[in-house]
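Most newcomers find our protein records easier to grasp once they have seen one. Read left to right, the backbone structure tokens trace the chain's path through space. Once this layout is familiar, the rest of the handout is easier to follow. The record below serves as our worked example for the rest of this section:


***
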Amino acid sequence: MPKTKKKPPLTAGVSQQRGKMTTKTLTIGEAVKSMNFLATNFMETNELDREALEISSKAISKNLLIRDYFMGMPKDFGLPFMTSLCKKMISEVDSSELLDLYAIYSAFLYEGGESELALDNLNKASEINNKHPLTELLVRVYEHAWEASSFSEMRSDIHSKVIAEAKKYAKDEI
């Protein structure tokens, strides 16, 4: 049986009052913790923790800072791993949360040199919403045939700033 990390309290978004489950808001800090747990747990077990997946996918689709944090995670976890994680997330999330994941997965694939598969996933994102800012940006990037290394360079330039912003606004609601 594989050893798993102790699961952090990921009950963000839910509280109990007199035996009833009620919805509460999710903070940026809780979302970041959830995404990090999702990644480390997937690394150790090759399975997605359901609660962390739900929290993470909702946060990615609702908050630009969280989406940018997720896009920067290859700096910490490596591009092949994050590409695999993103693919697995796409196969298991609610269809209402696929747009950003398709776009991010497309960017990871493009950076990894898989242009055809990247374009296929960008098309899936465009079918959901062709006016989505990340989707529009990626269309321009692919049309201008940016070097795949540009993504890594941008990540190196901005990921530490995204982390700092996530810490600064950790208690803010998504």
Summary: Residues 11-22 have pLDDT under 50 and may be disordered. The first helix runs from residue 28 to 45. DSSP finds nine helices and two strands in the chain. The beta strands are 14-17, 20-23.
